[in-house]
Amino acid sequence: MKTLFRNFLLIIIACGIFTACQDNRKKEKKESTIKPNIVFIYMDDLGYGDVSAYGAKDIQTPNIDKLADGGVRFTDGHSSSATCTPSRYALLTGVYPWRNKDAKILPATAPLLIDTMQLTLPKMLQEKGYYTGIVGKWHLGLGSGHTNWNQRVTPGPNEVGFDYSYIMAATQDRVPTVYIENSLVVGLDLNDPIEVDYVNNFEGEPTGKDNPELVTMKWHHGHNNSIVNGVPRIGFMKGGNSAKWSDVDMADHFLFKAKQYVINHKNGPFFLYYAMQQPHVPRTPHPRFVGKTGLGPRGDVIAEADWCIGEFINTLEKEGLLENTLIVFTSDNGPVLNDGYYDDAVEKLGNHNPNGILRGGKYSLYEAGTRVPFITYWKGKIEPQVSDALVCQIDLLSSLASLVGSVKKAKDSEVLLDVFTGKNQQGRDELIIEASTKTALRKGKWLMIPPYNGVAKNTQVNIELGNSKEYQLYDLNEDIAQQNNLAKKNPEKLDEMLSVFNIICGKK
Length: 508
Hints:
Blueprint: H1 2-33, E1 37-43, H2 62-70, E2 72-78, H3 84-93, H4 121-127, E3 131-137, E4 164-168, E5 179-181, E6 184-185, E7 195-197, E8 227-228, E9 231-232, E10 236-238, H5 250-264, E11 270-275, H6 296-318, E12 325-331, E13 374-377, E14 385-392, H7 396-404, H8 417-420, E15 430-435, E16 438-443, E17 446-449, E18 457-458, E19 463-464, E20 472-475, H9 491-504
Parallel strand pairs: 1-11, 1-12, 2-14, 3-4, 3-11
Antiparallel strand pairs: 2-13, 4-5, 5-6, 7-10, 8-9, 12-13, 15-16, 16-17, 17-20, 18-19
Helix pairs in contact: 5-6
């Protein structure tokens, strides 16, 4: 009788274990089919040394630091280009920008840069059931080149994979100074139509050059055309007064739209490209942040952006989405101080170095042009760590395709999902970086810059561009500041680098 009872208990226990295993398998299978939400937080002109997690001492970025401390902080993460439009093109298409002759800094009147038939990251995600959206800076061209801002402005983001778009056409310092939602200018009064011209002014319209008494922000170079909100811009604009944005409210405005997008699509999966405008010029912090850092408006808008990121993350957490959301934080290129306005960026810099330990900056082939803060964060899924792997934003398309079960792969985009999720640190072997259509090669610890004509330094922005009549070769493990050109001392390595460079660029 005891034996019978014991056997009965063993059968019950075994059945319980079997049922539990089955439940676990079902749970694991269900979890494996849940697609994570994906968010890109993309800053504009943020330098490697502008984030306290990357060594900044005179400016604090506690909310960005939380992402860095809780995810993978890459020390060798790159944009594809040292300027904005090319980087954004590569981010969304997975194609090197130098392969497209039109991928350069665009005026707001430029036609759409991305072919509507081209593979893009949002298109790939759409095919896997994602609702896709962009909030913030676009700067990849709109329309066909003859844009009527008073009608639907198309093709644009919605034609290259975004279900929802709320954007500014180009940059904060360019006209038209209006928001565009799903191809339509927001708040436009058709009785006051918008006119835009990048060559000729409209009769009777004041400019920064001719009417300095009307500006509240003095221009330094290249920003002396139409005046909006006291700020002289690039390009001429007439009309559209009811639709013009408020510069000091822009960060709050984009934050509201980003949070609203998350709340509206929290049942997901969703993709959000949150393209922030800071710290690009004109730097116009909300009064809440004026004087926050002591570094002038540039420092203050970085503090403002950090606050916005914290508020956005809080929304994800409040909506119960943080543990199922992969966040990628990075910048489109390296830093610049005086980029067209007298705004105390230089005068109040103090001991802060936006480059950190790097040489160059925005517009430069040196490391500070493309090596930028680069963080991946996924609460509970990514183990906190620092990675020295060589990675590039161009790799996000193919890597995320692997994450969501897509077979799509872009031309230059490598599958580095395990690197981005912290499972290994074996990054790229080679990377072509670009600055103003000029290219250089990163391979392992080496950087090779071919000879280029042109000035060595852009004196307007006080940044070394990397141009030289001689080959340049740097061992970045030993010389991260790029002070010792080894091209003549190590001709074998130079020849090896040049051979790889020519093969990738199709020159041999």
